[in-house]
Amino acid sequence: MNADNPEIDFSAEEAFGQELDRIRAEIIAARGAGDARYIHAVITAQRGLEAGGRAALAVSLFPPAWCAGTAMLATAKILENMELGHNILHGQWDWLGDPAVHSSTWEWDFLTPAEAWKHTHNHLHHTWTNVVGLDRDLGYVVFRMSADQRWQPRHLAQPLYNLLLAPLFEWGIALYDLEPDAVAAGRKPPRAFLTDLTGLLTKATCQLTKDYVLFPLFAGPSALPCLLGNLTANTVRNLWTHTIIFCGHFPQGVQTFTEEHIEGETRGEWYLRQVQGSANIEGGPLFHILSGNLGHQIEHHAFPDLPSNRYAEIAPRVREICERYGIPYVTGPLWKQYGSTWGRILRYAVPSR
């Protein structure tokens, strides 16, 4: 862990891990019809909102129709990206055996292809959570978010980078998933990069054509307001996604680790790193659905393949276990986590003492 987050005197990692393993086993055994109804209800709601939004934007020369259509489409895109795409691609619903809701078949309404995202997010990020040099999500390569990262002059501009990244977040993720830094370092073959680039260009062409050519053309006289509505909906989705993800990973109290810390890591120590490398965001049921239940980021990092609707149920138990073992459980309202994240971005933009 870095110097800003002192080591915890913790000698019962395996007992801690066993308690979390029991929670996991209980939820796996309890999955059933109620969970299936939940995910299908979200899919139905998302598709209804998208259809309604598209229909309203088709007649969006009328300002009320534009406002309603844009709001519905933005909400649909948020639901599809956060509660559906992110969680389905984690394999949370593979146990249903439904090919329409399966990590191997789902392609989301996002620029980056599902397969590329599963590699960088599911494999690299969730395996090496907050390990500097291994977790490429840490600061998204461009940022410096830990004293364990070497400061470079370009980091002085990272507050500006963050302002630009937020409305263009899907583009940032798409470029990040190409792993150009890994190619430059010799860890990724150029041929693999070109294959991924082809996949991204194909997916991006489909996405851009759908939102900025086909649907505006279908809108006829409302083509321009329809295009602007699609652009606004995508921007709102990007701003929301960026906010939730950054607030779940970078507030004050979230710890980072070096490669030395994970040598010989046990199951219990892996759980400990997931908890210490995450932060929760407090809110009501609607907030958690719209955030893909990533307001429970601690539970998501500990149990990335459990159904997201179960996180609210197990969060109090995880928190109680952490308190019993003296492990910090970082949580707070959105405004607090957002301000804390910006504080970290500003703090590490300058050289550490």
UniProtKB/TrEMBL annotation:
A Pfam short name: FA_desaturase
Ranges where the Fatty acid desaturase domain occurs: 66-331
Highest rank taxon of the organism: Bacteria
Any one of the GO BP annotations: lipid biosynthetic process
Any one GO molecular-function label of the UniProt entry: oxidoreductase activity, acting on paired donors, with oxidation of a pair of donors resulting in the reduction of molecular oxygen to two molecules of water
GO cellular component labels: membrane
Annotated InterPro entries: FA_desaturase_dom, Fatty_acid_desaturase
Name by which UniProt lists this protein: Acyl-CoA desaturase
Lineage: Bacteria, Bacillati, Actinomycetota, Actinomycetes, Kitasatosporales
